[in-house]
Amino acid sequence: MSPLEILRTRFGYSSFRLEQEAIIQSVLQRKDTFVLMPTGGGKSLCYQVPALLLDGLTVVISPLIALMKDQVDALRLNGVQAAYLNSTQSGAEQDAIITKVLSKEMKLLYLAPESSFFRRLGSFNVSLVAVDEAHCISHWGHDFRPEYLLLNQLKQTLPDVPVIALTATADKVTQRDIIEKLALRSPAVFVSSFNRANIRYTVEPKKRSFEKLLGFLETRKEESGIIYCLSRVATESLAADLAKEAFNVLPYHAGMEKEQRARHQEMFLRDDVKIMVATIAFGMGIDKSNVRYVVHMDLPKNIESYYQETGRAGRDGLESEALLYYTYADVSKMKKFVEIEGNAEQTRIYLKKLDQMATYGDLVTCRRQYLLNYFDEPAPSYCGNCDICLTQVEREEGTVQAQKVLSAVTRLQERFGTNYVIDVLRGSNSAKIMDDHRALKTFGVGADTSKEEWTSIIRDLLAQGYLAKSDGTYPVLKLTAKSAAVLRGAERVMLVRSKEKLPTPMMQVSEQSADYEAGLFMILKKVRTALAQEENVPPYVVLSDASLRELATYLPLDRASMRNISGFGELKVERYGPAFEDAIVRYCEENGMATRMHLKSPKRTSGRRDRPERPQRENETKQQTLDLFKAGHLPGDIAALRSLSVGTVENHLAYYVQYGKLSVEELVRPAKIATIQLAIEQVGGKMLAPIKEKLGAGFTYGEIKAVMAYLEFKATS
Ligand SMILES: Nc1ncnc2c1ncn2[C@@H]1O[C@H](COP(=O)(O)OP(=O)(O)OP(=O)(O)O)[C@@H](O)[C@H]1O
Ligand SMILES: [Mg+2]
Ligand SMILES: [Zn+2]
């Protein structure tokens, strides 16, 4: 069997993502391999697929014992022989597993690095070792785990076995360090794009954040989310406050009883609880694919953590939110957390990382670009899916205000922080202000402007580089090379006057399958929960939300069609197919609907057109869209005129393209069509998000949908 056949029959996915295929080839050629791929990118398959093709055993080193079970369960449901060994098992359980390993029945074995079985690897007929979360081996990383250092023995224990190291977070230094510590031999290195196009990044001022949070959660009651807080106490009190507001929520932190912690995690994974309010102790290695949002109530320590924590949203590729409540005050608070006593060098590294995190909060440019650049990846200055890109900023002349600030900073000899500078500007009578400073010319020149306004002006000046902030525990404001020209009156400064949120056309609710049957989706979720209970696994291990959405979109009515739904491997079709099929058949009967599978598979054996009649109502609404379009209105206008989402309008237009009633060139510039077609072919499948991810910001979902429809038209005509 080929890797692709394994992917399709065992895992039920139609095509490889990102660089999965190339990575798998490298592993199969027995090369040491280093993989840097974002959270949720699909690293697991990079060793799971080879494991099924190699003769012997694949050993997976993974840091968290608690999560091994889920991974093994997920494999088991796909019919893969896998197990884990750890200290929580009885001697008899361990012996049973070892017997299976020795009899070569087992394909994958998960181990923690400190495991005592480590020494026995030599007798296990190992074909491949996968080191997951490999950044844990490096003190340059953000999550150093001393026990991972034991892995530097790996190449001595198993000199001829290829090693694949995988991580979602490693800068260049960490990368080199991992390769060196694991003693990889001229490894093939794969670095995927870090862009998670389906995650929208938003930062809001951390002021009345609880009320803001309530507003945010209000519209997301049915969704799963994680809310990160800095302290254990904070998780408990926030969880209690949210529970009072009738949210389905539990706390999680390392100070809780082990059993309670495990129970809370389990309830969250099983969708029995929607919101987990947690410290960063929660989440590593969790593959719950339907987390729709991640909120940070406090500033994370570094971009790596932030990126990894937010990356837990939207692993299924559906639209998700990353929301951070930010105030610069958090930076000083965090400093004591990142300091490592007696280790000035490590402290310096951590303080710098904290500073880079603070910069993210203060950005006035695209947040995605900053994140990607942080990981050394070039990125366009507009992503269309972060708060900055989605906000129209109006600026106005603010030179005089800027001069007041800069001159106060000068007269205070660049030795004071933001609050003091503002107090001087406003002529505060606080006892903190030194007498000398009351005599300054700038004392009180800004009394007509509020403290909040000065704060945002200073933030703006910092962001535009007219001011700088020193490092250290108590940062002070400093002049920069750009300050002098402003003070001289030789440069005009434009300050932010107002910000207006733009409508968010592209990423509104469920782009991938705007036409899915919401009622059926809810029914399918229930079916899934029942199956998961029988199997004693979390629901998403049975099937992801993305798979359920596909079911609710294309309405497969038999086992053969179900094979074409992403996530349905052979075993799952056989085991769970009937239950889902029953639900879909009943739903279609009750609602007078027919299957839409023909919309999914582009290849048809004959040119026969046996398209079912769609309900009349639906045709009328599409026709209205078409009429408006023909009359010269753009999709955005039509959406506004008809109170529809742009996604729906685009779907209407794509429908006519698919039936040959509208030319694709009317929707997509001809120069773009070939590029989009190529991306669709390379990515495979019908999910828009990965195709969009591949194409980048220069292309819209509407364009992709139109080209997809055009390809279907070509295939069937
Ligand atoms: N080729 C593919 N097609 C469809 N879905 C895929 C594909 N590859 C992986 N997935 C799905 O993507 C999700 C994330 O994959 P995986 O758990 O391997 O992520 P990861 O890269 O290990 O992330 P993390 O760094 O958080 O551990 C899983 O639900 C997986 O089934
Ligand atoms: Mg992983
Ligand atoms: Zn952006």
TrEMBL record:
GO terms of molecular function: 3'-5' DNA helicase activity; ATP binding; DNA binding; four-way junction helicase activity; hydrolase activity; metal ion binding
Keyword Ubl conjugation belongs to the record: no
EC code: 5.6.2.4
Pfam families, sorted: DEAD, Helicase_C, HRDC, HTH_40, RecQ_Zn_bind, RQC
Positions with biased composition (Basic and acidic residues): 607-621
Entries under Gene3D superfamilies matching the protein: HRDC domain, P-loop containing nucleotide triphosphate hydrolases, Winged helix-like DNA-binding domain superfamily/Winged helix DNA-binding domain
Region Disordered, annotated ranges: 595-623
Domain Helicase C-terminal: 209-355
Any one Gene Ontology BP term: DNA recombination
One Gene Ontology term, aspect cellular component: replisome
Catalytic activity annotation: Couples ATP hydrolysis with the unwinding of duplex DNA by translocating in the 3'-5' direction
Domain called Helicase ATP-binding: residue spans: 24-188
Family from the record: Belongs to the helicase family. RecQ subfamily.
Database matches in PANTHER family: ATP-DEPENDENT DNA HELICASE Q1 (PTHR13710:SF105), DNA HELICASE RECQ FAMILY MEMBER (PTHR13710)
Protein name: DNA helicase RecQ
The species this protein was found in: Chryseolinea soli
